[in-house]
Amino acid sequence: MGKRPKIHLPKTKNEKMFDMFGYLFFAGSIIFLVLVWGRLPEQVPAHYNAAGKVDRMGSKWELFLLPGISLIIFLIMVPIEKHPEIHNYPARINEENAISFYLISRQMLNQIKNICLILFSLIAFESVSIAMGWWKGFGIWFLPAVLACTLIPLIVGIIRQQKIQ
Question: What does the longest C-alpha to C-alpha distance in the chain come to?
Answer without folding.
Answer: 58
